[in-house]
Amino acid sequence: MMVELSNDEAISFLKQALHEAEKSLKVETKEMPIFCLLINEKKEIISSSYNCTNESKNGCRHCEIIAIDKYIYGKNYEKMKNKNLIKCFNNNTNSINKSLSNYFSELKNIDKEFEDNKENTNCTKEHSINFEQIQKEITKKIQKLKKFTIVVTCEPCIMCVYALKLVGIQDIYFCCLNERFGGCGSVLSLHQVYENMNVHYIECNDCTNKSINLMKLFYKSGNPSAPDEKRKRPLAEISLEQ
């Protein structure tokens, strides 16, 4: 049974997400204040994240993708977060099980090369990774993802909508439009192209205004990770007082 939220339930989750989004402005690297919740069929939050593009120096580390990674990897997230799992899903000919097998075979080969070369480098490895066990756990979790939904404070971008489609998530709830990169109607309407994908724009002035104001604060303060020659405005302290 897939999860479907009422309007009041969606607003409640969005308010929680916006509260967490505000915290991303307080971290040293200052991330875009967008926050995502992954909700299971019991309407429980099982994973969440804000963007980590500045911290990771990876423009693909949006909150939707990280929340899914955290759920799928569980306790292995820190060791596995840069392993590019999403490529397993972009496969039209092989089953997900075969794709996962190929993916983990590749990782094991890379891991073996690391072990073989470790004596000749200054690299160290804290823990060995049990790829077989991780593969079994991930296979089970992927099947469950199809019953889950995403709540996010801003309309997912085109990249993230496609990622959600690949993992089988069918319902997306958000309260703020993304007029530059949105994949749920603002720029492209991917939900009208993909089967079984439902978009829910929640009309709540308080949530929408909060989301917009947080992003304005981010842009007004300047990006501390941008090179000086590329920065369009001087860095400024962020005041979260309303």
From TrEMBL:
Pfam families in alphabetical order: dCMP_cyt_deam_1
GO molecular function, one term: tRNA-specific adenosine-34 deaminase activity
Gene3D superfamilies assigned: Cytidine Deaminase, domain 2
Ranges where the record places region Disordered: 223-242
Keyword annotations of the record: Hydrolase
GO-annotated biological processes: tRNA wobble adenosine to inosine editing
UniProt cross-references to InterPro entries, sorted A to Z: CMP_dCMP_dom (IPR002125), Cytidine_deaminase-like (IPR016193)
Occurrences of domain CMP/dCMP-type deaminase (ranges): 11-74
This protein's name: CMP/dCMP-type deaminase domain-containing protein
Organism, as annotated: Plasmodium yoelii 17X
